[in-house]
Design brief:
four-stranded antiparallel beta sheet, alpha+beta, 225 residues, 2 domains
C-alpha cells in the first residue's frame, strides 16, 4: 500500500521548452502550467535507457498522427527523454517500500565504485552498467563507454548519465556546457573487475545452495525416522 502521495513533490523536466512533472508511480508526465494535460510513457517508444516521441508543441502532447508521415513543422520536435524511473527516483523508492516492485540484490558484498566526473557509481555487472550510489535507478550502460584514443563517456552533468545524441566517434568540436568527456579506466580493467565480482557471486550462490541442500536432506531424513 502506498501512503502520503498527496504530500509528494514531483520533479520537473523540460520537454521541448515546456515544463512537465514526472511521476514514476503512474508513468505519466503532467504539464506544469496545465495539470489537466497529462500523457503516459505508453504514448512513447520505450527503450531500456530512454523514451522517444514526436512532440507537438502546439498541443504540448505527443503527436497524434503517424509519426513517420508527419508533415514538416516548427511545432513538431522529435525528443528523447530519460526513463521515468531516473527522472523520479523517489516514486520508485515509494513503490519499492510499498512492495509494488522488487529490487534484486545479486551480490554478497559491497560493489566496487568508480567516480564519473563528480559522482560515485557502483560497477554493477548484472545490470550491465555503472549504477549511481545515491540513486539506484540511474544506470549508465557499459556500452556507452568510448574506447579509442581515450576511454570514457560523454557525460551529462544535469542528468548524471551519458549524453544523448552525441556520436562518440565524431563528436562536435564544442560541447554544450552541461556535457563533458569523463575519462574512465580502460574497458579491460572493468572486465577484470566484472570477473572478480561474478566469481564471488557464484561462490556465494554455491554455498547457499549447499546449505539449502543439507537442510533439505536433514529434513527428509527426519521425516523417515
Amino acid at each position: 500500500m502506498i501512503k502520503n502521495l498527496e504530500k509528494r513533490t514531483l520533479p520537473q523536466t523540460d520537454i521541448a521548452g515546456t515544463k512537465f512533472l514526472a511521476n514514476s508511480i503512474t508513468g505519466e508526465f503532467i504539464q506544469v502550467e496545465n495539470s489537466e494535460n497529462q500523457f503516459s510513457i505508453f504514448d512513447m517508444i520505450i527503450h531500456d535507457n530512454h523514451l522517444e516521441m514526436l512532440f507537438d508543441k502546439s498541443t504540448c502532447r505527443p503527436y497524434e498522427g503517424n509519426w513517420s508521415e508527419a508533415p514538416e513543422s516548427e511545432n513538431l520536435q522529435y525528443v528523447w527523454l530519460r526513463p521515468v524511473s531516473q527522472l523520479d527516483p523517489d516514486g520508485m523508492n515509494i513503490m519499492l517500500e510499498g512492495g509494488l516492485i522488487k529490487w534484486e540484490e545479486y551480490y554478497p558484498g559491497e560493489l566496487p565504485t568508480v567516480k564519473i566526473h563528480d559522482t560515485l557509481f557502483y560497477i554493477d555487472p548484472e545490470r550491465k552498467g555503472f549504477r549511481e550510489v545515491e540513486n539506484r535507478w540511474n544506470i549508465i550502460p557499459f556500452n556507452d563507454v568510448v574506447s579509442h584514443d581515450k576511454h570514457g563517456i560523454y557525460y551529462d552533468k544535469r542528468s548524471k548519465n551519458s549524453a544523448f545524441l552525441i556520436n562518440p566517434f565524431d563528436p562536435p568540436k564544442s560541447l554544450p556546457e552541461h556535457i563533458v568527456f569523463a575519462e574512465l579506466p580502460p574497458v579491460k580493467e572493468f572486465v577484470q573487475i566484472y570477473t572478480r565480482i561474478k566469481t564471488k557471486q557464484d561462490i556465494a550462490i554455491e554455498r547457499k545452495h549447499k546449505v539449502y541442500s543439507a537442510i533439505k536432506r536433514k529434513n527428509k531424513k527426519g521425516r523417515r525416522t
